[in-house]
């Protein structure tokens, strides 16, 4: 199991402190205020989960720079390689459906020759209209990267989603998809066995 970054842990604490209304299992999207998390904003994205797409509402400057494309207002799935789309969508549906938090370390390869391991922390948010749900995703690079130049601006990203996931129990348990072990309120399991 990997050790989560301080930024990931901080975002989870902020999420847990956000107010709930009408006995909701998750806070409303508008409860998250940028002035509480200014250092996270460049690495944060918020997206609305639809049936088979993920409409980006907001993407931080670091996220946009890594993708070399403005994602706000677009379907995030167009920036994900075809082979990974179902994995991404299934993970986001689990996050919003239980609800549960997820933290993954994903090795991403961008078509311009840039490789980077990114820790992605995903937490659910409720929309003002039921049953609208959103995800906020914090994407933090966790080690060195290499940039080989060239490539296509805004091309899909190849990401390795086969590593372990640390599920964060947000009050409804965690997915029992494998015989994971609990550590620091998170389960670690092989996400590739989910699909």
How would you describe this structure to a colleague?
With 195 residues, the chain is an alpha+beta fold. Helices cover 16% and strands 32% of the residues. The protein has helices spanning 6-17, 61-67, 85-97; strands at residues 44-49, 54-59, 101-110, 114-126, 133-141, 146-147, 158-160, 164-168, 181-183, 186-190. Strands 1, 2, 3, 4, 5, 6, 7, 8, 9 and 10 form a 10-stranded antiparallel beta sheet that branches. The two termini are 20 Å apart. The model is unreliable at 146-152 and 179-195 (pLDDT under 50).
Mean pLDDT over the full residue set: 81
Number of strands: 10
Q: What fraction, in percent, of the residue positions are helical?
A: 10-25%
Reading the helices and strands in chain order gives HEEHHEEEEEEEE
Q: So what's the overall shape?
A: globular
Using the CA coordinates, give the radius of gyration.
16 Å
User: Distance between the terminal alpha carbons, to the nearest Å?
Assistant: 20 Å
- Main beta sheet: strand number and arrangement? 10 strands, antiparallel
**Percent of residues in beta strands?**
25-35%
- Poorly predicted residue ranges: 146-152, 179-195
Helical run tally: 3
Structural class: alpha+beta
List keywords for this structure.
single chain; 195 residues; alpha+beta; ten-stranded antiparallel sheet; 3 helices; 10 strands; disordered C terminus
Summary of the model, kept short:
The chain has helices at 6-17, 61-67, 85-97, and strands at 44-49, 54-59, 101-110, 114-126, 133-141, 146-147, 158-160, 164-168, 181-183, 186-190. By secondary structure, the chain is α+β, with helices and mostly antiparallel strands.
């Amino acid at each position: 199991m990997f050790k989560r970054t301080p930024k990931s842990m901080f975002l989870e604490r902020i999420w847990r402190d956000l107010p709930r209304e009408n006995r909701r299992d998750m806070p409303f999207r508008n409860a998250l205020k940028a002035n509480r998390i200014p250092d996270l904003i460049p690495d944060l994205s918020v997206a609305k989960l639809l049936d088979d797409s993920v409409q980006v509402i907001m993407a931080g400057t670091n996220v946009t720079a890594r993708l070399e494309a403005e994602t706000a207002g677009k379907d995030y799935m167009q920036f994900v390689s075809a082979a990974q789309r179902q994995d991404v969508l299934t993970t986001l549906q689990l996050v919003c459906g239980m609800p549960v938090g997820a933290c993954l370390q994903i090795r991403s390869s961008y078509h311009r020759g840039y490789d980077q391991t990114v820790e992605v922390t995903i937490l659910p948010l409720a929309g003002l209209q039921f049953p609208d749900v959103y995800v906020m995703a914090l994407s933090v690079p966790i080690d060195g990267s290499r940039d080989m130049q060239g490539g296509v601006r805004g091309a899909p990203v190849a990401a390795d989603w086969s590593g372990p996931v640390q599920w964060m129990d947000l009050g409804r348990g965690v997915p029992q998809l494998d015989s994971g072990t609990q550590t620091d309120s998170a389960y670690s399991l092989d996400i590739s066995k989910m699909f």
